[in-house]
Amino acid sequence: MLRINDIIDKAQTYLPPEDLEMIEKAYIYSASVHQGQVRLSGEPYLTHPMEVAGILTNMKMDAATIISGLLHDTIEDTLTTAEQLETEFGRDVAFLVGGLTKLSRISFGSQEERQSENFRKMILAMSADIRILLVRLADRIHNMRTLQYHPKDKRIYIARETMDIYAPLANRLGINSMRMELEDLSFQYIAPDAYNELFAKVAKTNESRDRYTEEVKSIISTELEKYSIKCKVEGRAKHLYSIYKKMHEQHINFDEVYDLIAFRIILDSDQEKSCYEVLSIVHALWRPVPGRFKDYIAMSKANNYQSLHTTVIGPYGERVEIQIRTKIMHEWAEKGIAAHWRYKEGLAFKGSEENQIKKLREVMEIQHEIKDPKEFMSNLKLALFPEDVYVFTPNGDVKSFPKGATPIDFAYSIHTDVGNQCIGAKVNKSIVPLKYKLQNGETVEIITQAGHHPSKDWLKNAVTTRAISKIRNWINLEEKKNSLVLGRDLLEKEFKRHNLKFSSYVKSDEIKKVFSECSVNSLDDLISQVGLGRISARRIVNSFLAGEPVSIPEPIIDKIKKRKTASQSMGVSLVGVDDMDDVLINFAKCCNPIPGDEISGYISRGRGIIVHTKNCPYIKKMGKERIVGIEWNVREENTYPVHIRIVCDDIKGVLTEVSSVISSFDINISYAQIETINMVAVCNFVIDINSLNQLNQVLAAIRQLKFVKSIERLRHF
Ligand code: MN
Fold first, then answer.
1. Which long-range contacts link 108-112 to residues 24+ away (Cβ below 8 Å)?
2. Which of 172, 210, 270, 612 is an S-S bond match for 616, by CB 3.0 to 4.6 Å?
3. pLDDT band per the 50, 70, 90 thresholds, residue 265
4. pTM reported for the whole predicted model
5. Rounded to 5 degrees, what are φ and ψ at 191?
6. Among 624, 622, 643, 631, residue whose Cα is nearest residue 688
7. How far is the CA of 560 from the centre of ligand 1 (A)?
8. What spacing in Å lies between the alpha carbon of 13 and ligand 1's midpoint?
């Protein structure tokens, strides 16, 4: 059994005394809170956190990580609270253990294999600090090492989960040693027969293989000594799972797997070019097998692995696989992301190390700029997938959404009908409002009611394009239905004013001409355009009467008619006119006035009163006789589209940050687009504003963002 002194002994080789004291304190704490608890093996529970801490110490992790290893089950399995941990061990440790507790509460249900990438992403997203993930992996390793105490079905289940989720995660982080151990342990339980057979075969050939390994190693060493190259040569049997996979993928027998042993030349030098030198020496010694050379130095793997791989014809005419790498590359190959703690304490970065970290940062998709590499390592709050949130369906399937997604987005992701009929949602079994923002790892259930409809408000709470377009579709359809009724009504009235009958004109041949004049395709289209206020009923009458000697009186203020509700909802009224019934109002596209702007009205022909801002250059050119005084008469729910343009630094997440500022004012964004020119990003937004005052507040808030260079309200003068 591992003792605390073993951990301290190892830790003191790289950690300062005050860290060791803290580790010891965490040990005492863990021992006291876990007292009396036993594992399935019958051993005291404490052995588990101790082993986890031991694994982390072997990886040379920092004190907070080792302490979190010792305490990782305290919140979940004892009466300990996060607050207590913070008082005793500081915020860092409390944060890590808190994160581990959240991770341990995820239940994976019976997931399909194809979804494991989503699970991995979710775990990554929940590991706000990469150390959380490293402790989680160490935890899993020890649980796998002691899996034999579980009942059989549980063993297989846990082993599958490890193979599907944790081994690939270790691989993604480049921690090869962990990946191989997790794979071999899982393999042993998932396919025990294959494992045992392979294990026996490898063991049987052990002795002769050892002799052979020594021989090859010594030939390589002797040769390299001639060139005074300082290095270490290793020859190790590959892990069983990789041999098994090879046999399966290539449909070959055990005897046909020629490269059971991977030879490695690890150079003292940290120069990449030395690797190529050694390669040429090896190739001069033994003939290379064509097509088997791989240069992972020039083209490193996605997880940042670097090495040269070659296969040569060895001393007995057999194939020998040889890997060539520098010490630093080797450390990364073994420990991946965990390796950089070695360099934490103020050590200067040499070129290639810095490169490694830079590449790794790209791999990990880190968003913000971190100039000082030390800063990068000390606050490893790696936001791995900051834009996404992962949640469960009641069946245990994982769905991913952009951050800020609500139950509405979730509902539409299941089915349009589920979305349309959604009346509420449960998150982790409690009811939440539809505007609730989903969090990683939550289980979401949608409550529907047949015959329920979406509302315009939902657009404020939906973030996925799918949900937004489905809601819009529904609203458009609904508006079209209403506009047909209204349009017919307006047309009939207008025709009646001229003592004409709409229904008889509809049947006449004239109608085709009207269609093309108004660019519509059908009668319904025409009627609905009138109902939506896009074409005036008067214009239709005029079209029908064109050529006929009927005099239509010039439109003057009190004769421009439209339905009452429409003019009210525009939020303006004419100065000195009490009866605003049925006045058709339009806002000028050029200056696009909003409440708070000083405005004037212009009486147009056929389009009612056009509202311009007082200072609009266009209205200044118009004849005075057609200008009327007009004033705001706004109701709170009226909103007006405003086009704003923001120029800012071209960094990631600009759109998201600006959007979230706008949304914080509860303002709807109806259009957003970003364009990058010469390191400068230009964002265009159309937002629904209710007043000049509100607009000024939003603009001021956006101006506060440090990456914003300028911002303006756009008009088309
Ligand atoms: Mn555990």
1. 108/161, 108/165, 108/396, 109/392, 109/395, 109/396, 109/397, 110/396, 111/164, 111/396, 111/397, 111/398, 112/397
2. 612
3. very high
4. 0.55
5. -130, 70
6. 643
7. 77
8. 26
* Cα-based distances in Å from 714 to 312, 594, 673, 689: 68, 12, 14, 14
Q: What are the tens digits of pLDDT across the range 547-565? A: 443 333 333 333 333 333 3
Positions annotated as catalytic residues are 76-77
- Answer yes or no: is pLDDT of 344 > 70: no
C-alpha of residue 72 to centroid of ligand 1, in Å: 6
312 touches 223 (CB < 8 A): no
Rounded alpha-carbon distances, angstroms, from residue 7 to 54, 65, 155: 6, 13, 29
Would you say the C-alpha torsion 481, 483, 486, 489 has a positive or negative sign?
Answer: negative
Ligand 1 centre to CA of 146 (Å) is: 11
Phi and psi, residue 265, nearest 5°: -110, 115
What is the length of the chain?
717
More confident residue, 231 or 442: 231
pLDDT for position 168: 80
Q: What are the backbone dihedrals phi and psi of residue 279, each rounded to the nearest 5 degrees, phi first?
A: -55, -45
Say what the pLDDT of residue 125 is.
Answer: 63
Interacting residues of 5 by C-beta distance below 8 A, sequence separation 6+: none
pLDDT of residue 120: 65
Spatial separation of the C-alpha atoms in residues 669 and 666, rounded to whole Å: 10
Return the biggest CA–CA distance within the chain. 114
Give the chain's mean pLDDT. Answer: 80
Q: For 458-490, give one letter per residue: b (16+ CB within 10 A) or e.
A: bbbbbbbeebbebbbebbeeeebeebbebbbbb
Residue 144 CB partners (closer than 8 Å, separation 6+) = 158, 159, 162, 181, 182, 185, 186
The label of the residue with tokens 């913000």 reads 368
Lowest mean pLDDT among 281-290, 311-320, 462-471, 629-638: 629-638
How far is residue 99's CA from residue 133's CA, in Å, rounded to a whole number? 9
Nearest to 335 by CA among 147, 137, 164: 137
Question: Percentage of the chain surpassing pLDDT 90?
Answer: 29
Residue 236, strand partner residues: 262
Residue 493: closest CA among 504, 502, 506: 502
Residue 336 is given by DSSP the state G
Whether the pLDDT of residue 585 is over 70: the answer is yes
Specify whether the CB–CB gap between 49 and 73 falls below 8 A: yes
- DSSP reduced 3-state for 681: strand
364 has a pLDDT exceeding 50: no
* pLDDT confidence of residue 117: 60
The closest alpha carbon to 234, from 246, 249, 217, belongs to 217
One DSSP character per residue, 68-92 reads: HHHHTTHHHHSS--HHHHHHHHHHH
Of the candidates 378, 238, 396, 201, the residue with the CA atom closest to the CA atom of residue 321: 238
Confidence of residue 276 (pLDDT cuts 50, 70, 90): very high
Confidence of residue 52 (pLDDT cuts 50, 70, 90): very high
- Tell me the backbone φ, ψ of residue 563, rounded to 5 degrees: -70, 150
Using DSSP's 3-state secondary structure scheme, residue 427 falls into strand
- Calculate what percentage of the chain has a pLDDT beyond 70: 84
How many A from CA of 50 to the centre of ligand 1?
A: 10
